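User: structure tokens for this one?
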Amino acid sequence: MMKTLRLTFFCIAWLVGELHAGTIRGTVRAEGPAPAGEAGGGKYDSRKFKFAERVNYDELRDFVVYIDGLVPGKPCGSNQVVSVETRRISQHGAAFTPHVLPVVAGTTVEWPNNDDIFHNVFSMSDAKPFDLGLYKSPEVKRVTFDQAGRVDVFCSIHASMSCVVLVLPNPCFSVSDDSGHYRIADVPAGKYKLKAWHERMPALTQEITVPESGEIEVNLVLRVNSLPKY
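Assistant:
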């Protein structure tokens, strides 16, 4: 009888926690600095610099929006322990796919080599230094990312090969779609720090309050000019 009562109480508490959860949605984009005075002419149009590729901030993709820090209860549709899983970054055409992979700390990432040549996947990042050595199919190497942080990954043979594994402390994150929209569902009600990240932009942190139900819209703009001036 006591076991049944305890189980019933636990189920009710879990259900109440699930009901008191909201959704964060919005857009995220990048905004570059104002162009230099002669950016449209002068030496910029010379043979030396005319074909130097410039950053098109409107075309930046792979933004990650996430809650910074721990989230109580069963956040974002799954328990923080249960949500740990195996993910995959493939090597094909001398490129990593996907280029950016956000994961929860504790996740194992597989690194299959789908090319007919050798690759050597490695990282010297503080959060997870590793070297997988030379290998190709059918061998598949694996790395478990157990510490939150940014992990830049390269191939020691091919200069164009790079990717980023963004290791996060909770499963409340979203990768923006091609139009810059993101959505994080089932976030327990409360106050949080929402963070927007892109590999070549300063991160943006904004304090938010998630309602017990319904949605909150948060639109985010990452800017280079948010950095200290010297």
